[in-house]
Structure formats: structure tokens, C-alpha cells
Design brief:
alpha/beta, eight-stranded mixed sheet, 7 helices, 33% helix, protein methyltransferase activity, SAM-dependent_MTases_sf, METTL22, Methyltransf_16
């Protein structure tokens, strides 16, 4: 019989043999379909997935209810976009950024995974309007944000976010607001606003969003008339500024 140390070593080797290292492509389903979306008089075509699956991390590959809420609001209030510079957080497939490009002078779309984002930017590269730019931005990542601000050192008029918290841990909410605060501070109070299309899925997340906004010295104003049902969920538009 082997020693206890040998048995422990053998058991550890067996455990290591059972560990499967997955390539990140395992978490991406690239079965995209060209889909048409209509918001008021604006017709958009984008590649996206049609349904979710438990086999993949599809957070940025689907069009979520919050994006529909955001685009509906922006299409009805397009004057707030006219001539503006915009940065979108958690752009996903880029549906909001593409709509913004019809009215804005500059649009930067950010996400942690930009594969499908770049695909949709390429799809619209010959359309009229400003050039769409994709940038990698993980919330709280100083290097990512620094690279963006080095290129756009005058900041942005608007920061946009729709359903950007959908599958993230509540512990990530402070990182989101850290990044938003830094972006808002470039222009200073009153010169830049964060428009958030929020869809309520859990009271704990509702509280975390409101709490972090307050702790980061922000005013969170619900836009009158925007509270509505999106699918079977409650949605609302917030305009968030520095105090």
C-alpha cells in the first residue's frame, strides 16, 4: 500500500485530469441573424441572436428589453441627440449606438466583448452619419477608460446605458458607477448626463442602483412618462447627473 502522501498526490492528479479548460469561444454563439428593428421612422438592421441559451454567455449578443425601451425613448426625443457626442456602456449588438448615429456627431460604443459589435459597425460603415467606433471597456478598468479618454479628451455630451446590469453581480454595480462618475466629471456638473434605461428584475438590484448613484454624488431623476411595462417587466428612464 502506498503512503498517505502518495495517495493524496494520486487523488490530486485525478482531479486535475477531470478539469476541462474551455476556450472563450465556448461562451459565444455566433449563429447571428440579420434582423430588422423599427423605432418610429427609424429602421435599423443588425446581426443578433434570436433567443437565449444556457450553453453560452449571450449577455451582449441579444437585444434586451432595456434597449427597446431606450431606443423608443430616443426616437421620440431625438432632439436630445442632435449634434451630440455619445458614449454607450455595455453596447451589446450596438442597436442604440446605431440609432444614435443618425443624429449624433460622434458615437463610441463600448463593451467587454466587441465581436458582434464590430460586425454591426462594419454593416453600417457606408451609411450616412458619423463613423461608429468600438472600444473595450470593463467597468472599473482604469486602463480601458484611460485609452478612451486619451482619444476623446474633451469627454462626451451623453453617456447611455440600457439593461447594462442584466446578468452582472451586484458587487459590480459600484464599478459601473465608478466609470460613470469619471466620465461625467470630465465635463463637470450640468454639462454631461447619464441616461439609463432601467428594467427592474430584482428588488436587491433596484436598491443597489439607487444606493450607488447616491453614494457617487449623483442626482437620479426619473423622466416623467417613461415608466412602462416592457414585456412582463417594469421599465423606466433615468437621467443621472453630478450634484
Amino acid at each position: 500500500m502506498g503512503s498517505e502522501s502518495e495517495k493524496g498526490r494520486d487523488a490530486k492528479e485525478e482531479e486535475e485530469e477531470d478539469i476541462v479548460c474551455l476556450d472563450e469561444s465556448f461562451f459565444i454563439n455566433d449563429d447571428y441573424q440579420l434582423t430588422t428593428f423599427t423605432f418610429g421612422s427609424n429602421v435599423l438592421e443588425l446581426y443578433c441572436l434570436q433567443s437565449a441559451s444556457t450553453d453560452f454567455d449571450l449577455t451582449g449578443q441579444l437585444v434586451w428589453p432595456g434597449a427597446m425601451l431606450m431606443n423608443g425613448y430616443l426616437s421620440e426625443n431625438a432632439e436630445i441627440l442632435q449634434g451630440c457626442s455619445v458614449l454607450e456602456l455595455g453596447s451589446g449588438v450596438g442597436i442604440t449606438g446605431v440609432l444614435c448615429s443618425k443624429f449624433c456627431r460622434k458615437v463610441v460604443l463600448t463593451d467587454h466583448n466587441d465581436e458582434i459589435l464590430k460586425k454591426n459597425i462594419d454593416l453600417h460603415e457606408h451609411s450616412s452619419g458619423p463613423e461608429l467606433e468600438a472600444a473595450k471597456l470593463e467597468w472599473g478598468n482604469i486602463d480601458h477608460l484611460g485609452e478612451i479618454l486619451q482619444k476623446h479628451n474633451d469627454g462626451f455630451d451623453l453617456i447611455l446605458g440600457a439593461d447594462i446590469y442584466i446578468l452582472m453581480f451586484i458587487s459590480s454595480v459600484p464599478l459601473l458607477f465608478d466609470s460613470v462618475e469619471q466620465l461625467l466629471q470630465i465635463r463637470g456638473p450640468g454639462n454631461c448626463k447619464f441616461i439609463l434605461a432601467y428594467v427592474s428584475r430584482a428588488r436587491q438590484m433596484d436598491s443597489a442602483i439607487l444606493r450607488e448613484g447616491a453614494e457617487h454624488g449623483m442626482l437620479m431623476n426619473e423622466v416623467p412618462g417613461t415608466r412602462c411595462t416592457v414585456g412582463n417587466l417594469q421599465g423606466v428612464i433615468f437621467e443621472i447627473t453630478l450634484k
